[in-house]
Amino acid sequence: MAITIDIDNRQDALTITENSVKLIHQAIAYCYQMEKFPEHYQVSISFVDNEEIHDLNRKYRGKNEPTDVLSFPVDFESPEVGEKLLGDIVISTEKIVEQAEEYCNSVSREMIYLLVHSMLHLMGYDHMDEENKKIMRRKEEQVMEAMNLAD
Question: What stretches of 10-144 adopt beta strand conformation (E)?
Fold first, then answer.
């Protein structure tokens, strides 16, 4: 079964290329394989600017600042299509560019790292304490290594 990924590009700071979409599909496939998730889970990804993610961060997390990525897990069975919605990912492309420069990464690598990080949140991982943070970081590294995008 094919993985269903909806991509909504609502920004103009970064061009989402065909290669970007290919990398997004690969990263999500690796996450599904690693976690043994069935591929019928649908994921929605929105690329936005800092202003929009700032508004979402304030509304949903009470933080009055832009952030790099937000994850919105969903547990909803859609009877029309028979797919489970895993959740929504919102990524600031302005933050991708800023952080790629800050961490001396490529823009593609930073985008995929944020996507993988958010996918793991959708799959139930968090980094609220040190032990969970180590587990999540290890999972992120596994996917990034599988994609030849590790540091």
Answer: 41-48, 69-78, 83-92
